[in-house]
Amino acid sequence: MNNFHIKGVDFQYRYNEITRIGGNPDMLMDFGILRLQKGQIYEDIYNLERAFLLVYGEITLSYNGIEKTIRRKNCFDDSPWVLHIPAGVELKIIGVAEDSEVTVHRTENANIFEPHLYEPKETADEYRGAGTMQETSTRIVRTTFDFSNAPYSNLVIGEVIGFPGKWSSYPPHHHPQPEIYYYKTNPKGGHAFAEVGDDVMKLSENDTILITSGKTHPHVTYPGYALWYLWVIRHIDGNPYIHPTFLPEHLWVTEPNAKFWPFSEKKEA
């Protein structure tokens, strides 16, 4: 384990800090896991841009005179609820289910924008990689907001579900903006492997990896186990994240007519 791979734990019923602005490495954002019991209250009054993604459970959100109860059975079958609020907005979260989990994201941003609660129907399932690579990298990508629909934000937030035994975040790619991945497996007890630059890390439930500038980060999942991961990217001032840079030597595998061993054509002896 290193400071780029944070092993998962059974999180306490409170805010569990994983990274903070100015940390080592500096991901330019706070990130942590909020776990709530029924009736437990969490208040967030940080003077930062913030986003809160419901992983599972049921909670009540109270902000700007709005009160809304949201629920999510699990992060594999259901699309997310994500609350996105600017600096200066006070928030209260109340646990309704016996156990709920929320990812918490905070970063500096002087832009003032209207709070928005993204409903599950606003985050579509995209079957990325389908029809290529012999379906070895078909996965579900859910992007809640990015530069295209929230250009005022300093964050990009989404989810990926890697199918059992398949790759995701492939072909290998990189970008200068820092990114955080946070993981779940289905069923629990599964594992996956992540390449981060020249390092390979074995992933388990509740692990987090921190991806710094220029490091590639593809994954492969254990057969029998699906892999869900939250991904959040922090824009760099003057250089927002739009799309990654793929390693050119591996891009050929995405071509519709790419040939892989064993080749269907018979070879002469």
Automatic annotation (TrEMBL):
GO biological process, one term: inositol catabolic process
A single MF term (Gene Ontology): glucuronate isomerase activity
SUPFAM superfamilies reported in the protein's UniProt record: RmlC-like cupins (SSF51182)
PANTHER family, per database record: 5-DEOXY-GLUCURONATE ISOMERASE (PTHR39193)
Any matching Pfam family: KduI
Record bears the keyword Isomerase: yes
UniProt keyword terms in alphabetical order: Isomerase
Keyword Isomerase included in the entry's annotation: yes
Protein name: 5-deoxyglucuronate isomerase
